[in-house]
From TrEMBL:
Name the record gives this protein: LuxR family two component transcriptional regulator
Source organism of this protein record: Microbacterium lacticum
Pfam families xref list: GerE, Response_reg
4-aspartylphosphate carried by residues: D57
PROSITE patterns recorded: HTH_LUXR_2, RESPONSE_REGULATORY
Domain Response regulatory: 6-123
Domain of life: Bacteria
Length: 257
């Protein structure tokens, strides 16, 4: 029997952690191994517990979730995948999360099935963006457009909430963050490069580009979730990319979205 996915919950609101625990504990393949209420607690717990996946809030006391993610990902002894789970639908948070090495970005208004899917996808070594941000941001990546700038006053708010560097230095501009984040991923075949996919794989890729989860793809195509995972794996292998985000970029570049 496969060992359950070990999850650490990080949020400064106990009620939110309790809600996540209730959702994830109901899944037979997921086990909650610990909780933390601050970024510093998260870093310490990650080092001690070595969870498979960390569900990480952004705005917290002591150390924000983005800096906590950087420290966790930078620790070679900790191989946890981090999924940022936040209330704030802000591009600057998304870009910083990507640069920090997060494996997913989910909004707290997502459904329970999306939280479960995000944990499973991250545990499998893939990346997942919330549907609400995928369409808006990935299209900009795919077309090579400049990164969207944060909302007016966002940089000041970020500094106030502790999203400057550990030493207080301001973060690089959003476009620089995005460039570095994308540079850290596998190359995506350019517009002139065509990859031969089966009809079913093409359908799966189109649905991925529409920000559908595996559960939603399975329902749309009337196939099992395990079959969807196989198709997604085949698509990534044929495209020569590491994760779903890069696959979506390919779909947009080639007019499949």
């Amino acid at each position: 029997m496969t060992a359950p996915i070990r999850v650490l919950l990080v949020d400064d609101h106990a009620v939110m952690r309790a809600g996540f625990r209730m959702i994830l504990d109901a899944e037979p393949d997921i086990s909650i191994v610990g909780e933390a209420a601050t970024g510093l607690e998260a870093v310490a717990a990650a080092s001690t517990l070595r969870p498979d996946v960390i569900c990480m809030d952004v705005q917290m006391p002591d150390l924000d979730g983005l800096e906590a993610t950087r420290r966790i990902v930078a620790d070679p002894a900790v191989r946890s995948a981090v999924v940022i789970v936040t209330t704030f639908d802000r591009d600057d948070y998304l870009f910083q999360a990507l640069e920090a090495g997060a494996s997913g970005f989910l909004l707290k208004n997502a459904g329970p099935e999306q939280l479960v899917e995000a944990v499973r996808v991250a545990a499998a070594g893939d990346a997942l963006l919330a549907p609400a941000v995928t369409r808006r941001v990935i299209e900009r990546f795919a077309r090579g457009a400049d990164a969207p700038t944060p909302p007016a006053g966002a940089s000041g708010a970020a500094e106030a909430s502790g999203t400057t560097g550990a030493a207080g230095a301001p973060r690089p501009a959003p476009d620089a963050r995005v460039s570095r984040a994308l540079a850290s991923t596998d190359p995506v075949p350019g517009p002139g490069v065509r990859v031969e996919l089966t009809e079913r794989e093409s359908e799966v890729l189109r649905l991925l580009a529409d920000a559908r989860s595996n559960v939603e793809i399975a329902a749309a195509l009337y196939i099992g979730e395990a079959t969807v995972k196989t198709h997604v794996s085949n698509v990534l292998q044929k495209l020569g990319v590491r994760d779903r985000v890069a696959a979506v970029v390919y779909a947009h570049r080639h007019g499949l979205a």
